[in-house]
Structures are given as structure tokens and as C-alpha cells.
Design goal:
There is one protein chain. By secondary structure, this protein is α+β, with helices and mostly antiparallel strands. The protein has a single domain, classed as Aminopeptidase (3-Layer(aba) Sandwich), CATH 3.40.630. 27% of the residues lie in helices and 30% in strands. It is built from four helices and seven strands; from the N terminus they run βααβββαβαββ. The protein has a seven-stranded mixed β-sheet, with helices on both faces. The radius of gyration is 15 Å and the shape is globular. The mean pLDDT is 94. The site of coenzyme A has 19 residues, from strand 4, helix 3 and helix 4.
Length: 151
């Protein structure tokens, strides 16, 4: 397994992986349009030329970034791939000067092992909510907000 930045050739596999989970209700759906527009945010995990994991870091505001759209393929979970993707996203973010990472998740235990702590949604800057209006769950968000602060 190795990690690399996503390219256009990965979009269909990312779209399928994320939206298969979205159909099960365990993550939010993503359109091809949003995947293309944020492709530079994305790191993928690949094994034998197959996409087995994906995750993104999206810059939101000054020194603030969101870890999102994290998905590990069925059969490849609990092998440390999700952890490695998030750690790589944190390295990228720190290099850009990110001081606060946040995520909105249904998997708080997983993010807890990576040093994220639960906060109330009101503690996140209002800017973060800009995209919520496009979410199928808006305004009844049932995700858990978590942050990891640097230094
Ligand atoms: C949640 C998910 C991203 C975790 O990735 P993963 O590669 O399976 O997790 P890892 O093997 O890297 O686990 C890292 C740590 O988190 C723990 N962990 C992983 N999934 C967990 C879960 N569902 N509940 C509790 N702990 C979990 C592991 O025990 C491990 O801890 P350790 O290092 O102390 O042993 C993955 O299971 C997944 O894609 N699930 C389906 C889609 C989804 O729910 N995405 C969430 C987006 S918010």
C-alpha cells in the first residue's frame, strides 16, 4: 500500500467508494463536480493499482482546515490505512501553517485515536457552515464536531 496525491484518473473510483458508503448512510454523498473542484485536496491509498482509501484536507479559513471525505474500502479497514491518510493530511496542513484541524464525523472513536477531541458545533467558526446548506441532512446535522489544535 502506498499513498499519493489524487489525479483526474482517480475521480471515478473516489466517487464510487464515497457514494457507496453514502448510500449506507455512513458518510455524506459527493458529486463528481465537487470531487473535481477539490481534487488537489485529496490523498489516496493504492494497493496493486487499486484505490483502497481516500481522504481530503480542505482549507477553510486562516490556519483552519477540515479533514473530510475519508473512506477506506471494505476489506481494507482496520489496517492502519485511515490513520496513515489522516497523518499525511496533517503533515500537508502543518506545512501550510494550519493550526486547527477539524472534522465532522460519524466516527469519533477513530478520530479520537488521532488526537482529535469533541467540541460543540458552535465552537467552530461560522465560515465552516457555508457548505452545510448543500448537505442533504441540513439543518438536522447528526455528525460529531472534533478538533485537533497544533502547538
Ligand atoms: C472510519 C474509517 C475511515 C477508519 O479507517 P481505518 O483504516 O479502518 O482505521 P485504522 O485502521 O487506521 O484505525 C486507526 C485507529 O482507529 C481505531 N478505529 C478505526 N475504526 C474505528 C471504529 N469504527 N471505531 C472505533 N475505533 C476505530 C483503530 O482501532 C485504530 O486504533 P489503534 O491505532 O489504537 O489500533 C474506515 O473504517 C471507513 O472508511 N469507514 C467507512 C466510511 C466512514 O465511516 N468514514 C468516516 C468518515 S467521517
Amino acid at each position: 500500500m502506498h499513498l499519493r496525491k489524487a489525479t483526474f484518473g482517480d475521480v471515478e473510483a473516489i466517487h464510487k467508494l464515497v457514494n457507496d458508503y453514502a448510500q449506507q448512510g455512513v458518510m455524506l454523498p459527493r458529486s463528481r463536480n465537487s470531487i473535481y473542484e477539490t481534487l488537489r485536496d485529496v490523498i489516496i491509498a493504492e494497493e496493486d493499482d487499486r484505490l483502497v482509501g481516500v481522504g481530503s484536507l480542505h482549507l477553510s479559513w486562516d490556519a483552519l482546515a477540515e479533514v473530510r471525505a475519508l473512506a477506506i474500502a471494505p476489506g481494507f479497514q482496520r489496517r492502519g490505512i485511515g490513520r496513515q491518510i489522516v497523518e499525511e493530511l496533517l503533515i500537508e496542513g502543518r506545512a501550510l501553517g494550519v493550526k486547527t484541524f477539524f472534522t465532522l464525523t460519524y466516527q469519533p472513536e477513530f478520530f479520537g485515536t488521532l488526537g482529535f477531541s469533541e467540541v460543540t458545533k458552535e465552537e467552530l467558526p461560522q465560515k465552516v457552515w457555508k457548505e452545510c446548506i448543500n448537505c442533504p441532512k441540513f439543518p438536522n446535522c447528526d455528525e460529531v464536531a472534533m478538533v485537533k489544535r497544533e502547538g
